[in-house]
Amino acid sequence: MFIDAKVIVTKVTWRKDELYYINCTATPPLVNFVIGSNTYTLDNKQMVIPHGEESVVGAQNATVKCFWGVFPFDFGGFGPSWIIGDPFIRQYCSTYDVVNKRIGFSAANGA
Fold first, then answer.
1. Among candidates 27, 34, 17, which has minimal Cα distance to 71?
2. Taking every annotated instance into account, which residue ranges of this chain make up the domain Peptidase A1 (predicted)?
């Protein structure tokens, strides 16, 4: 069973296009992900993602044209999963070490 995004951010709206919409001026709480023994915090400004030209703060429809950047995903039997995608990639660089079979993350410049 997924932890519903509404538990984390109470002002999101689930729509038929399978996105959680949020007010573009909202300030959601910080989100922490633990991978191995490391905790990665996603800055709340990374979590509110503009969705089209009308998402500019101050635009007439700004309250409905941003979406929350983390999505629940049912990956067939592997338990609850989240797609952290763009917010994580903008804030952390990924390094893949194929020889030693490991992945590393470091803070991105300007993040």
1. 17
2. 1-106
Q: Can you give the residue range of the structural domain that contains 49?
A: 5-107
CATH number at residue 82: 2.40.70.10
What are the residues whose beta carbons fall under 8 Å from the beta carbon of 103, sequence distance 6 or more?
94, 95, 96, 97
**pTM given for the model:** 0.61
